[in-house]
Amino acid sequence: MGQKTGVVETAALTAADYTAIEAELLNDPRTRAFLEKRDAHMRNVGAAAGGDLLGALRAEVGKLQSMSHQLGDGSIAIAGQHPHMHMMRQELRQLSSHIEQTKQEIAQMVPKDSANSRILAATSELDAIVTATERATSDILSAAEAIQATTERLARTGHIDVIEIATDIENHVMSILLACSFQDITGQRTTKVVNTLRYIEHRVAAMIGIWGVEGNGDAMMPTKPGDTRPDAHLLNGPALNDVSQDNIDALFNAAGAPAAAPKPAAPTGPSSQSDIDALFD
Amino acid sequence: MAKASATPVLVVDDYATMRRIVRNLLTQIGFTQIEEAADGAEALGKLRGSNVGLVISDWNMEPMTGLQLLKEVRADVRLKGTPFIMVTAESKTENVVAAKEAGVNNYIVKPFNAETLKKKIESVLGTLE
After folding, report:
1. Which residues pair with residue A247 across a beta bridge?
2. B15 vs A183: CB contact, 8 Å cut-off?
3. Residue A141 phi, psi (nearest 5)
4. What domain range is B45 assigned to?
5. Per-residue pLDDT of chain A (281 residues; tens, 9 = 90+)
6. DSSP annotation string for B34-64
7. Cross-chain residue pair A234–B92, CB shorter than 8 Å
8. Total domains present in chain B
9. In chain A, where are the structural domains located?
10. Cβ A229–B28 below 8 Å, yes or no?
11. What are the DSSP calls for B91-121, one per residue?
12. What ipTM does this complex have?
């Protein structure tokens, strides 16, 4: 069975039990004296405990008041110690204002009437330049070829002086023909600009989409998808400065045989024909 | 032995102007069999359907570039020996090296002149005179 623990458990006491026990204790002078002494003792303990608690509360209130003062003075001190805080708030306000203004400006770039789109208009203008130069170049080539046919007829006359003149004309016509290759170079350059404009157009549309600014996304021209050609990384178009064929030749002749050719390192600037020829020797 | 200028030539360029100029130059130096293509894919079709003896090709074309065309030619059992000259505005060292690695026979940078074209053709096919 259960062991004795030596601890006397407290029994539940009803109000009636309490009254009955109290009356019984008060009947005996000895127990009554005990109760009176105990009550006096408890009053002293309670007063002391209350005093301690009150003191502690007062101390806490004092601390809070002190902290409150410190905070009040501190905010002034912080502002005093960090004068940039005010400037930062101003900068943030200006930044916010600038972003808002930019959003509005971007929205104006893509009005609902696509015909008024500035980027679209610029792209169309460049496309028109390419078309016009192509047509003009074709006309020049046709005229040059007609002159070539004429000079051949002159050469067939057999007169030595005429043949010399015809040869001279022929050389000049050849110069005209070669000069017409500008259309290829300028065409490639213009295409690069058009592609850049289309990229900007796409990014602007994306920004408008993110900000939810009203614009006509449908009016945007379809953006050319990323160049998937395997050698796209090698396609840079014409160099800004003329490249001499001699430098290209040197480069070409210097390059190893196909199987042993070195791997290209970092991208480099344009090469001349001499450089290219050097890769091939 | 047939003259070098009797070689059938395929001119590949996406710019009609350039095809016309190169065709004219080739005619001036004696070539009579000249075909044209506007990109690598069209050129490959023509190469497989005829007996072209020299390819003069631009690089930057769509959908198939000149470099891709060159690699296709070198990978084709029947076409792999076809002389191939790249004529392009791409003039960086890595371009020349990549073209040579792929097996190009010569490389001309645009804009070029008639003398350069003739000299490079002769270096590949032999004397034209």
Report:
1. A273
2. yes
3. -65, -40
4. 4-125
5. 444 445 566 777 888 888 888 888 888 888 888 888 888 888 777 667 666 777 777 777 777 667 656 655 544 555 555 677 888 888 888 888 888 887 777 776 665 555 456 777 888 888 888 888 999 999 999 999 999 999 999 988 888 889 999 999 999 999 999 999 999 999 989 988 988 888 887 887 777 777 665 544 444 444 345 778 889 888 888 877 778 888 888 888 887 666 433 344 444 566 677 777 777 76
6. EEEESSHHHHHHHHHTS---EEEE-SS-SSS
7. yes
8. 1
9. 18-81, 120-222, 244-260+270-281
10. no
11. -BHHHHHHHHHTT-SEEEESS--HHHHHHHH
12. 0.79
- For an interface test with B, give the residue of A138, A227, A275, A276 to mutate (most B CBs within 10 A): A276
Closest chain A CA to residue B63: A229
CB contact under 8 A, B67 and A261: no
The residue to which tokens 């050698």 are assigned? A231
What CATH number does residue B56 fall under?
3.40.50.2300
- Best B18, B64, B96, B117 member to test A by mutation, with max A CBs in 10 Å, is B96
Which residue bears the tokens 């490389």? B107
